[in-house]
Design goal:
Chain lengths: 615, 438
């Protein structure tokens, strides 16, 4: 082999071994990074299962599942170790070949160049250097710019959520009547040094406000909601609370449309842009439809004529005793107005992330308001209100403590206020009827529990939940259904809560609540799977996967299942064992809220507009 | 006769290749074992209360001994200058580097160090509450002053980081000039980033990612040891990789050395253009003779056009770099622990309940409110906005000047050391067949 050929061979060997070493080194780094990211004994799935095992120490199936998970994790770990070892040897061999070929190549090319050739080489090298400097400099600056543009500025987001409320500023456009004594009102005119502020921790704020409330709460109300006779049928006719009648997700309205298109306006009777954002779902009473909203400038309750979309009134929440000087920090996916309103024909009631709970008359007068203490809630309060028999039920489980209370709709005073041995929860209370008596049922970590409506007393509880509970319960034909990601989906007989009627750990919900109707239970997971179970046996009837995430809850109306996905598409399915999709109308904007129903119409809230849809 | 002896020496070096492979093999296997060991056996936690020494922050030294260190540095720099410039002794420089490796490296645990002193100086300039010690300041200044007169004699045999790599240069290969120029841009970025992070009180990244300090202390985090072994392995055929591709202090030294009046020369008298020196330099730091070819009209015109273009580009690149730097301040500021923690707690609020997250739990138990943390983070981020602008502008400026330098040619008759890149190690002097009296 002549010298030229030897140079060629050495050059090729150098290139091939260099690329080989680079690839092996890259794989080793990726492998190492992967190992650092996924420690075998720190698997979330295993941790969740082990936690479950502590609750069910005799569950042999669970033990077997943990063992197989553990074995899998260990196998993956040792395979990865073997790959590192093999990779190191390959790198060593590649490195030796690379070094040898480089050496041979440079030695073969060595020689004394004439001065002319040296200069030519220098000119060529300089030209190459300019090209590569431009390229690498451009790449560095370009990547920095892209990274700079794409990086999410969490501090800025957080800063924008900070609101320095100035109680001295008059809001002349809001009709406010004095609801508490003159003494209190004058106190409220100046900032209360004891009220929670930005510099006070959430726990302290919650406690201090609650303490001040104890002294202030019994003050006589100047204006009150007229306390008329309670008629449960009115609640069945209207869509008075989150998830409708008793908060169970089943509507009794008829002729609900299945065909519309937001962007083209098809079957859109009206749409109005609301002034402030909020994830709460609309509620209806008579001809009025209500929503709430909140941003750094304030919190509002809004009322529209549900037939025409005309804005009847929008009132800002203000002069609430004990209300914090600054808004609490909440995450963007929860916001300040995530909890839905409740309405009973005499008043409309709203709760917000700062702990303010207020009542407005149907005509928009602020009747009373109180602050329950800024909730120590790292996402933001989202548990909606339930109203029944002149009482507003508030599930107020925070990081500080578990708490539930009932307020008198007429003046906001506590009818009862109980502490609960549960962790923070984002679920809403629902009502069920057992043996002719109404119970409140809540879901939180670790209990699904039933409470007496009149006293708040715990009637039964089942240890079944864990983690950050978001879904509320469903109820049908004597069974309560609950679900929570990493815990389970289960059915409970409130008359025999000692054991589960059935449970399933294949599908569990993270955000949306289950709904039960006519012997079937339906549930939507946040990753887009809708599943149907036999309510009595827990046998899976069907499952259907949709393209988009679902953060809303399935609801039943007119014998059909309505599920709004995150992209605003409503998946309308037959509420039966067939799993048939009837239609998938599009709203044209993202959807998080649940639909509200009235005869012949459905109301949908997007991220910007409220829609009335009817044929 | 002497030339023959030198050639023979070179050939002997080539015959040592099997030895090199054996060394490579041993180090590779050791490194593998080290990696495996580090993963399998984490350090024990002692019940007796014994706290293991932190490899990145050693115990402070008494003031007298600090000044003794300065004296040793000054003496070593003076001796290195004499050996490189006057005595022209490669052997002397090598023995001196062995001494400094033992003293500043293994005995002084790699700290105090001129390379890391950049950060102390930067912090003392931007943070009035921080007072730099005189010893640290002198460690920063003395090598630069010597470089201004005698070239990079600090790199030759005083820096322990350079010394440990230099002793393992076994079979160096030459790499194309364009790769060297491109890689040479990395230390500039590293320098800028290190100054920014030190000035904002975020981190001393030069110390944190010092690849050899773990070896000097025979202990250290996995990443530190891994980097050290990798650099040493790489250095067997790509000589002094850390010095050439990463060392931020080397940037400052090269700027100073460019103006050095008494820089060492390759030949003691007249160059015979034998090229032996070029082959002997493991750092590609010897400039070849340049004849009049670059003065050909078409070449000269092209170079002039480029020169004017790059000259005009310098302010534009500086402004563009500054703008991009200020845009990058959000992700750069995450290197500060307070900003990182605040953003973590905002973006993943559920972690506050995670008892295994030590950073968050430590903060929650500190008694500070989250609002205070966020306010502090916002102040730091504002500093990063200014700092990012300065860093970007600096990078843009250096890029522009480097590009401009590529079209500037100076006529050269002999093989000469590249003053900015030459480490003054003396290998070329050793290989030069020309006698002093020739």
């Amino acid at each position: 082999m002549d010298k030229e050929n030897r140079i060629k061979v050495a050059h090729r060997a150098m290139l091939i071994s260099g690329i080989f070493c680079g690839v092996v080194a890259l794989l080793l780094i990726l492998n190492f990074w992967n190992m650092k990211q996924h420690e075998p004994l720190e698997s979330e799935a295993i941790e969740a299962l082990v936690q479950r095992l502590s609750q069910e120490p005799n569950n042999e199936v669970l033990k077997e599942e943990i063992r197989s998970f553990d074995l899998l994790a260990r196998k993956a770990y040792f395979t990865s170790k073997w790959q590192i070892k093999a990779g190191t040897w390959l790198l060593l061999i590649g490195g030796i070949v690379l070094a040898a070929s480089m050496k041979i190549y440079t030695d073969l090319r060595a020689g004394i160049d004439p001065p002319e050739a040296l200069t030519e080489g220098l000119l060529k090298a300089r030209a190459n250097a300019q090209y590569w400097l431009f390229l690498s400099g451009g790449l560095i600056l370009g990547l920095s710019l892209v990274a700079g543009v794409l990086t999410n500025d969490y501090l800025n987001e957080y800063d924008r959520m900070a609101v320095s409320a100035d109680p001295a500023v008059e809001q002349s456009d809001v009709e406010v009547i004095e609801v508490f004594g003159a003494e209190q009102s004058s106190e409220n005119a100046t900032p209360d040094p004891e009220s929670p502020s930005e510099g006070v921790s959430v726990e302290e704020a919650e406690k201090s406000t609650e303490e001040s409330l104890v002294a202030a709460a019994p003050a006589p109300a100047v204006a009150t909601v007229s306390s008329g006779a309670f008629n449960p049928n009115d609640f069945k006719l209207n869509h008075a609370t989150f998830r409708g009648y008793m908060g169970l997700g089943v509507s009794y309205r008829k002729n609900i449309p299945v065909d519309w298109n937001g962007p083209s306006g098809k079957n859109i009777k009206w749409k109005v842009a609301f002034s402030k954002p909020g994830y709460n779902s609309p509620v209806i009473w008579g001809d009025k439809i209500f929503i709430s909203g909140g941003d750094k400038n304030g919190l509002v309750v809004t009322c529209y004529n549900r037939n025409t979309g005309q804005l009847l009134w929008e009132k800002e929440v203000k002069d609430v005793p004990g209300s914090p000087a600054a808004m609490p920090r909440v995450t963007n996916d929860t916001g300040l107005a995530a909890a839905s309103l409740a309405v009973d024909g005499k008043g409309v009631y709203a709760i917000f992330a700062n702990g303010d709970i207020v009542a407005f008359s149907m005509e928009g007068k602020q009747l009373w308001g109180r602050n329950l203490g800024v909730p120590n809630n790292h996402y933001g309060h989202s548990s909606s209100l339930q109203v029944w028999d002149n009482m507003i039920v508030v599930q107020y489980d925070t990081n500080t403590r578990g708490r539930m209370l009932a307020l008198n709709v007429t003046n906001g005073e506590s009818v009862w206020d109980v502490q609960r041995p549960v962790h923070i929860s984002w679920a809403s209370p629902a009502l069920i009827e057992v043996d002719g008596k109404i119970q409140i049922v809540t879901s939180a970590d670790p209990y699904v529990s039933g409470h007496d409506l009149d006293t708040g007393e715990e009637l039964w509880k089942v240890e079944a939940m864990m983690g950050e509970v978001g879904p509320s319960i469903a109820f049908d034909d004597g069974l309560v259904f609950a679900s929570q990601e990493y815990a389970r989906t289960l059915a409970i007989d409130p008359k025999a809560p000692e054991s589960y009627v059935w449970e399933d750990d294949e599908y569990m919900s993270e955000v949306g609540s289950p709904v039960a109707y006519d012997g079937l239970m339906y549930m939507a997971t946040s990753f887009g799977v809708v599943v149907c179970y036999d309510a009595k046996t827990g046998e899976k009837q069907w499952e259907k996967e949709f393209d988009n995430e679902i953060w809303s809850s399935p609801v039943i109306a007119d014998g059909k299942l309505y599920i709004v996905d995150k992209e605003g598409i409503t998946h309308i399915m037959k509420a039966d064992k067939s799993g048939t999709v009837i239609a998938e109308p599009e709203l044209g904007e993202q959807g998080f809220a649940l639909p509200a129903f009235a005869d012949g119409v459905v109301y949908l809230r997007g991220t910007k507009n409220l829609y009335c849809i009817g044929n | 006769m002497k030339r023959r002896v030198n050639m023979h020496r070179k050939l002997n070096m080539q015959k040592r290749i099997p030895g090199f492979f054996i060394l490579l093999f041993v180090i590779m296997v050791s490194a593998t074992t080290l990696i495996q060991g580090q993963q399998r056996f984490p350090k024990p936690e002692f019940d007796s209360g014994y706290v293991q020494p932190d490899p990145t922050s050693p115990e402070p030294r008494s003031v007298a001994l600090e000044y003794f260190d300065v004296f040793v540095l000054l003496a070593a720099l003076s001796l290195a200058s004499w050996l490189a410039v006057r005595k022209r002794s490669r052997k002397g420089l090598m023995w001196l580097s062995i001494f400094t490796l033992i003293y500043f490296g293994f005995y002084r645990d790699g700290c105090i160090c001129s390379v890391g002193a950049i950060q102390n100086v930067a912090l003392s300039i931007f943070d009035p509450a921080y007072t730099i010690s005189l010893a640290a300041l002198l460690f920063f200044l003395l090598p630069l002053i010597f470089a201004l007169f005698f070239g990079r004699v600090f790199c030759a045999s005083v820096c322990p980081l350079g010394a440990i790599q230099d002793l393992l240069v076994i079979n160096p290969v030459s790499i194309p000039s364009w790769i060297r120029k491109t890689l040479g841009f990395i230390p500039v970025i590293y320098l800028g980033l290190a100054v920014l992070l030190a000035a904002t009180g975020s981190d001393f990244i030069i110390c944190r990612y010092d690849p050899f300090v773990g070896i000097f202390r025979m202990d250290g985090p996995f990443l530190m040891i891994f980097l050290g072994v990798t650099f040493l392995l790489l250095g067997t055929f790509y000589a002094r990789p850390y010095c050439r591709v990463f060392c931020p202090y080397g940037v400052l030294l090269s700027w100073m050395s460019k103006f050095s009046k008494y820089h060492m020369s390759i030949t003691p008298s007249e160059c015979i253009k034998c090229k032996l020196c070029k082959d002997s330099c493991p750092f590609d730091a010897i400039e070849v003779p340049v004849d009049k070819a670059y003065r050909k009209p078409e070449v000269a015109r092209k170079n002039l056009r480029r020169f004017v273009l790059y000259l005009a580009l310098i302010p534009m690149l500086t402004l563009l770099g500054g703008w991009i730097g200020s845009k990058s301040h959000v992700f750069l500021s995450r290197m500060h622990p307070d900003v990182y923690l605040a953003e973590l707690m905002i973006s993943q609020p559920e972690l506050r309940e995670d008892e295994t997250n030590l950073d968050i739990q430590a903060f929650l138990e500190s008694g500070d409110t989250f609002e205070q943390l966020v306010e502090q983070a916002i102040v730091i981020r504002t500093k990063f906005k200014k700092g990012g602008l300065a860093l970007g502008a600096f990078i843009g400026l250096v890029l522009g000047i480097t590009l401009m330098n590529q079209v500037v040619f100076r006529r050269r008759e002999d093989y000469e050391p590249h003053k900015a890149n030459c480490f003054s190690c003396g290998r070329c002097m050793d290989f030069c067949p020309v006698d002093r009296g020739t």
